[in-house]
Amino acid sequence: MAPEENNGRPQGFAGPLLRRIAAVSVALGAATALLAALLGGLAAVYSVACGVGVGLANVWALTRVVSRMLGEGSDFGRTLGGVLLVTKMGLLAAVVWALVRYTPVSGEWFLAGVTAVVVGTLVGGAANMSGGGDA
Question: What is the rounded distance in angstroms from the CA atom of residue 34 to the CA atom of residue 57?
Answer without folding.
Answer: 22
